[in-house]
Amino acid sequence: MATLKDIAKRCGVSTATVSYVVNNSGQKLLPETRDRVLKVVAELGYQPNAYARALKGFRTKVIGVVFPHVTVPLTNVYFGPVLEGIVAQATERRMATMLLTGFTWEETEQGAEREFSGICDGFLLIAPRRDSQFASDLAKSGVPLVSVGTRVTEPSVSSVDADNRSGGRLATDHLLELGHRRIAMILTAENASPSSAGKPEKHMWSALERQYGYWESLRAWGLEPDPELTATISDDPVGSRLAIRRLLLRQNPTAVFGCNDGAAYRTVEVCRELGIRVPGDLSVIGFDDIANAASFNPPLTTIRQPISGIGSNAVEMLCAQIEGRAEKTEHRTLPVELIQRRSTAPI
To answer: Whole-model pTM above 0.90?
Structure first.
């Protein structure tokens, strides 16, 4: 089935231009451009999907939730609670939720939207790549869309997430107040290896925002951030452990801020291997407050974000777009709080 993107490529114009033509929007275009688009529309047999029908009042009452990089989101410590919030809010609004999995981000960028076309009234993209072409294509086609947990580079896409920068400051302030000055940070990469250290374009949006908060806190205390006190990890457990081990042995920090609870706990595991006591020799703080953070050994000091609330807010924002109530692009941030447990202690 042909898409707006296919037509745009054949005509040498933008998807937005094609959308203007097929929806007869009244946008001023050169007659020859309009004629060329209409000719290709006929040649490819393009049929407007449900989004075009929605302009005439048709709705599927279905929200599409895209997890293309997670095979079992229900069991994931972050995605599970996000989905709980999405489903609860959608149910309250008498809308169905369709979980769209089975595609990697690479496959999605290459045209998986064709598989989804006409199924849903709008989409929630869960932690997509920051430069997601899929998000950009959907936005330019006028599809209601909210990015969850990431702010993508396409400026017209709304997003919702925790106040990551504030959380980064809270975590670092806590360690500084305990007397620590050599505070390291563990970042997570976006589908990359630990060799991505020092390459901001490879880091997850949330991780970067938390790092900015970490820098702001250090500078407020009169300390200049040291790039040698930063390590980057990924989904590769062996490479990630090596990156953390290298950081601890070479830089000798007295505290570590993991940009999520997984990074923090992985640091604790490496400390056990090295005979480093937590918090006796090294304080460790995380970010998220996932369900089992309190049962870690030691119980993890962390920054709590309202994970389920992020999901419910995403549905509210998406429904405002679907119903024509959203007047502009919105980037919503939800408050976070410090949860102090036993993985941090005075130096």
So the answer is: no
